[in-house]
Amino acid sequence: IKNLKSTFDYIDKVFVISKDKNHVLSSEGISAAKTHFNAFYCYNDYSYDYWRNFDFFNSDTYRILSPTIINENGQEKQIIPIISRQIGSSKIKNLIVVNLRLDVITKNSENFKYTPNTKFYIMNRYTGRIYSNYENQSDISITETNLYTNLTKNINTFDYKGNDGKKYTVFSYSSTDSPLGY
User: Fold this and answer.
1) Helix H segments across 11-127?
2) Spatial distance between the Cα atoms of 35 and 166, rounded to a whole number of angstroms
């Protein structure tokens, strides 16, 4: 767990939830699941009960959850949790949770800017929610806009006039038509 986290700067925490979901193994050690999710690593959208009742669909080997805010020792961060139940080709009994830091992913995207004012966002096409690390733009719904319509039509580059009256050029990218919609 420590090696995985230290290899990739965008990984915030990695932990394993035991099959009986009563314990969590992290780089800090083993803790009771209820204590871990209520005191050490508190997700805004995923409570202890969520993890206790978490179940995969039959065909899933992993699932990417919607971004959320976590509170760890009074520090808040935007996180994208990825849950896996498979290592290589072997299914395992426990859940492996890898939490990606949205701020680091956004910062890493700075190398790919088209202009100095380019901003990076992640959108779920099914919910119309956009996630970013920009202040006041961390969780926005855009389902009723032309921007959403163009993004869901897989138009890679288009001009868009924002609510502020400014004209923007949008470059979108999706490597696959993910069933999760990101």
Assistant:
1) 33-35, 48-52, 102-108
2) 48
DSSP assignment of 32-62, as one string? EHHHIIIIISEESS--HHHHHT----TT-SE
Residues 157-181 pLDDT 10s: 888 887 788 888 888 776 555 555 6
**At 146, which helix (H) or strand (E)?**
helix 146-152
pLDDT in tens, 40-82: 899 988 999 999 999 887 777 888 888 888 988 888 888 889 9
The verdict on pTM exceeding 0.90 is: no
Number of neighbours of residue 9 by Cβ within 10 angstroms: 12
Count the residues in the chain. 182
User: Nearest Cα to 114, choosing from 65, 61, 156?
Assistant: 156
CB 93 within 8 Å of CB 103: no
Single-letter amino acid code for the residue at 153: K
The sign of the dihedral angle between the CA atoms of 62, 174, 136, 74 is: positive
- Beta-carbon count within 10 A of 174 CB: 13
